[in-house]
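1st attempt posting a full record on here, be nice pls
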Amino acid sequence: MYASFSRLLALCLVLSLSACHLLEMPNNNSSNNSSSGSATATASAYIERFKPIAIAEMKRTGVPASIKMAQAILESGYGRSELAKKANNHFGIKCGSGWTGKTYKLRSKNACFRAYSSAEESFRQHSDFLRNGSRYADLFKLKTTDYKGWAKGLRKAGYATSSSYPSKLIELIERYRLHQYDQ
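the predicted structure (as tokens):
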């Protein structure tokens, strides 16, 4: 009798846990779509806000707008990173020995980063950083429409240490069709 009662109790427990689990599972029509919709809305808003300056900077310096937007998205998390919010630094550019402007100390990385008065200033300074850096000179031999070459060239020139950096940029450019701004 005790064994039957134990099995019945175990069965009830399993069924109730299963029912709870089913209640917690996301509904494909609401939760998942609103999450991805929210991410898409964030991306769209970020791109709409900064594409004019990315295009203007491409015309001014030759840095492809698609590359600039993909780097900003990746480095700042669509403008939501601590560095973007508190220092207007959308590209993760560190202070460096020659930097005399404002700075921001990011505790999580124990590093000094450049701080800007606006996000737009960050976009302009990023262009100048690339344009005036001798290690990036070969990038400017590429066409502005060669976003794949630029993505690989940034990694090769030492902008990022991650071997997946170029593929991440390319994926963002293609997902959001950022290459359309390079014309």
